[in-house]
Specification:
Number of domains: 3
Oligomer: single chain
Helix content: over 70%
Structural class: mainly alpha
Shape: globular
CATH superfamily of the largest domain: MFS general substrate transporter like domains
Number of strands: 0
Distance between the termini: 40 Å
Order of helices and strands: HHHHHHHHHHHHHHHHHHH
Radius of gyration: 22 Å
Number of helices: 19
Strand content: under 5%
CATH architecture of the largest domain: Up-down Bundle
CATH topology of the largest domain: Growth Hormone, Chain: A
Length: about 475
Amino acid sequence: MASGTVIADPAPEVAGRLPRELVRLALTVMLGGVMVGLDATMTNVAINTLARDFDTSLATIQWISTGYLLALAMVIPLSAWSAERFGARATWIASITLFTLGSLLCGVAWSAGSLIAFRVLQGLGGGMIAPLIQTILARAAGPAQLPRVIAVIGVPAMLAPVLGPALGGLLVSHASWRLIFFINIPICAAALLATSRVAMPDTKRAAASRLDILGLALLSPGIAAIVYGLAQAGTRGGFRDSHVLIPILLGLALLLLFAMHALRTRIEPIIDLRLFRVRSFSGASAVVFFFSMAMLGTALILPLYYQQVRGESALQAGLLLATQGLGFGFALIFASRLSGRVGPRQLVFAGLVLTATSTIAFTQIGTETSYIVLSAAALVSGLGIGAALVPSMAGAYRGLVDDAIARATSSLRILQQLGGSFGIAILAVVLQQGISDHPGAGLASAFADTYWWALGFTALAVIPTFLLPSTPPPEERESSLQ
């Protein structure tokens, strides 16, 4: 169909089946979402192999994940601006193409430094994909059919955290780690081919909003400097070294300048700090930030434990991680059903309790801990992640006017990626230091001690849950009683 076609109003077909063109569009954008999800989970199981092949430390190799997450966070605001300026189709094609190029370059990387740089390039493309999916489907489906469209792509999307570790482990163990990046290329090609055959909504605006260039110039280097300083602490032996203090202090100064700019600028800032005046948004943002520190940070630790302490292959480590993905998928299903009866506060608190319970179990891991116990703890962890993360993000919109929803969505996604960046950097430093302090038989203790930090991040996420709404939205509460 013509590239500039706008999908017709689907309202007349709400009671029947979804329009075929709408389903095709949903499946097309799903390819992009699954691709990014698979890439993230596959890379986690390859960290040990990459550190060995490039003969580098964990504090250095963790930048493969940290740099990627920082790039994801910084490019999120560009997706909304670009969709309004150039249109959804052009922005979608550009993001998929950039992700493809980054994947190709990652696959031919010759050093840890080159791989980190190419992962950042890959993140610049991947960061726009998730927000674009939301924008495209919301415009094409309309509010009445959007939940049904999400259900169409939801099940395949939930397979990424289950299949990603296993597929990544299979490639790393029986072929080469380079294939975890090369495998993205045919998926990207399929996504681009499918894009040429579907209609996408027209998102161009005659007077597109201005891009907050100054905010981007302050926020991006500020966050990167802090994360760099934290990573240096692992190789410099502490936080008193000038190579650690100077980047952190510089980063904090840049963040302070950004905060002053964001509160005064007349254009839409990268992160709209004025949204934090709304209680529910403030609570949800804090939960998402601290919980992402724990969630994405520990995603790096468990596969390393299986490979470094238990001597498992990347494939075996990936298979052992599958229970966490299953738990996450089940939690998404049940959380969506309970959201009409239970408020976000209760769901998020229950999810955090589950996550804390699993983390406490991981603080007790040793060299011979039962795999049944570890898999059960991973399953509970997945249940907790799904139960806490999704309701907290949904609860952020309570009390916001319609015009603020787009800004809130962008800010939440940025905070999620930033929390993950901080979490990975800090836990990697703690683990690296623990490995140095517990060589040989004491290696398991380094992993167990690191999980106490993750438990602390989870505990911090509990505090702002009391700012979340304790009742479901009136319209959801009414529909659940019918």
